[in-house]
Each structure stands twice: as structure tokens, then as C-alpha cells.
Amino acid sequence: MNNIPNQPLEMTFKRVFDAPRELVYKVWTEPQHFANWWGPKGFFLEVAKMEVRPGGIFLGCQSSSDGNHVMWGKFTYQEVVTPEKLVFIQSFSDEQGNTIRAPFNANWPLEIMNIITLEENEGKTTLMLNGGPLNASTDEQAAYDVTAPMLQQGLEGTFDQLADYLASQK
Questions:
Q1: What is the CATH number of the domain that holds 135?
Q2: Where would I find the Activator of Hsp90 ATPase homologue 1/2-like C-terminal domain in this sequence (predicted)?
Q3: CA distance 169 to 120
């Protein structure tokens, strides 16, 4: 299953982690690890399902520490090349995994394509993330464009948590 669109992806994010590629891949693909670092700071992730294979689904629920904010999300994996590449479509969902609108913006794109590549050099791993809306309407694209700086900042925080978690796994 290789349904990667021929459209430009709008966000590029690069980060070097002080960990071997196999470990970085493992914490991206195993639920007991992924739940320990994915998502905004101050949120907890419960993994309901994680099938990392082409056509497989990740389904999880993020909740704030006070329990007042609860959001379900899913990834639908398009391409998986162990331990170097993950391609998935990310969406907000309900508890059953049905794609829904984002709770914070009715114009947020229903689907975001993410392409993650991992390259190892001297025991460190460079993660490259390319992403952007998939099949977005004009209004959805505009909502994404306005929010992109906050999205970038959120990724920084999430990847800070990933770096901390990787350090704890050595």
C-alpha cells in the first residue's frame, strides 16, 4: 500500500537524537514506549490500538492531567520500512476510529500526511518529518497555514519529550 500523494508537504522538521536508529524506531512503533512521550506536554496518552504495518491503525486517546481535555486521534499507516521510514495519515477520531473534525477548529484538515525518515550516523539518529494537509479545501488549508507556527512549537515540545524518553532507555 503506497498511497503517498504527489503534492508538496508543507512542514519540514529535523531533529538529531542521541540514540541509535533502532531505538528511535522502536519507541515510535511499540505502544508501551509511544505512550510515554507522544503528545503535548501535560497530556497523557492511552494507546487503544497500534498496528504498525501498511494499512494498520494507531488509535489513541490524549487527556490533560486534569481530565478536562480529551481528544482521540488515529494514524493510518501507508508505508513502513523498518527501521528507517514511517508514512501515515493523521486524523482526529472518535473512540471507534472514525475520522472526525478537530475539536479546536471546524476548518482543520481532516487528514494530515506525515513522512518520517530516520538516518543513523555515529550512534545518533536524524529524524526528518515532512507533513501537510491531504486533500484540503481552501478553508482547511487556510486554517492549517494560520496554525502552522503553533504546530511547529508543539512538535518541538513533543520531540523534547522524545529526547528525554530516549535518554531514559539507555
A1: 3.30.530.20
A2: 18-166
A3: 17
